[in-house]
Amino acid sequence: MALAGLALLIVSVRQAGWDNILTSIRGVGPWLLVVVLLGLARMAMRARAWSLCSRVEEGRGLPFRSALAATLAGDALGNLTPLGLLASEPAKIMMARRHVSTVGSVSSVAVENGFYTASVLAMLLGGVWLLLQRVNVPIGLQRVGEAIVLIAVVVAVVVFWMFRTRPAVLSKIGHAMAARRLRTLPPDQLAALEARVYDVVRWPLSRLLHVASWEAMFHVAAVAEVWLILRTMPGGASTTLTDAFLLETTGRFITVAFKFIPYRLGIDEVGSGSVSQLLGLGASTGVALALVRRVRILILNVAGLLLLARSTRAVAPES
User: Fold this and answer.
1) pLDDT in tens, 121-169
2) What pLDDT shows up at residue 209?
3) CB atoms < 10 A from the CB of 319, how many?
4) Number of alpha carbons in the 13 Å side-chain half-sphere of residue 235
């Protein structure tokens, strides 16, 4: 998959023109530091939302600094390996267990991911609507937009049904695994985990809005990052926030759909270049945007891997 992504990257760069891409990237220059800081701020916003979700009682839960370190480490593993969420979320849980219980760490990660998923679906729906209003979209992209709408409706219906009926899904899976002598959490912990997830609907409205606001700010910062990169490129003075929103929506969809490809190599460039071409910005602008953001991801992922190594060394003597 990585080799196929590399081939896509080479093709997209050749089609857009290396000289044009290099000129666009050079325009970013020292602004790359601001791009990296915006990326760090985005990770901090999700970490803050996770910290709020981990609170069982007011004032108790996962410390923000620990949540940020775990978020950076998890993101690095999720990008580096084809396991995606199967690597990033267990890493976050492992690092969080130094401060909260297993049930607390698993449930808080699940709840925060639920808020994040809802925010992503809302952003994708808004992006699909704007894109259809703005340009003559090819039939292929129209089908993708229809699929996004359908998935959003199905997810909403399933989530509503689950919170209304509170099915003991995890408990049943745990009993089935125990019957086959497979290792799992004790049934009482699985029941407690399910209860904490379902109890989200009983949170005070202020807490729900607080978590949701951090997830929304994550996307606002992402759009600001795209807008800044585009504005610093030659000919980017006319770039609008709508352009940035549509390109970020594309990037968010690619992140969700192709998480299993390490660093979404080549996929980011093809998707960003295609939408940039549709918006009249030129394919080279979109490819350059994806490459600059990839540099930001690599910088933050190096920091995440260092934090993961530090955490592993800290817990090694205890195991």
Assistant:
1) 999 999 888 888 877 777 777 787 788 888 888 988 999 999 889 888 8
2) 96
3) 5
4) 11
In the block, residue with structure tokens 């808004």: 126
74-111 tens-digit pLDDT: 999 998 888 888 889 999 999 998 888 888 899 999 99
Residues belonging to the chain: 319
Cβ atoms 222, 248 nearer than 8 A: yes
Per-residue confidence (pLDDT) for residue 224, from 0 to 100:
96
Q: In which residue are the tokens 């202020």 written?
A: 206
Per DSSP, the residues of 164-227 read HH---HHHHHHHHHHHTT-----HHHHHHHHHHHHGGGGS-HHHHHHHHHHHHHHHHHHHHHHH
Q: What's the whole-model pTM score?
A: 0.89
SS3 (DSSP) at 94: helix
pLDDT given for residue 318 in this prediction: 43
Q: What integer pLDDT is reported at residue 97 of this predicted model?
A: 86
3-class secondary structure, 138:
coil
For residue 291, what are the contacts with CB-CB under 8 A and spacing of at least 6?
A: 21, 25, 269
Where does residue 280 fall: left (phi above 0), alpha (psi -120 to 50 degrees), or beta otherwise? left
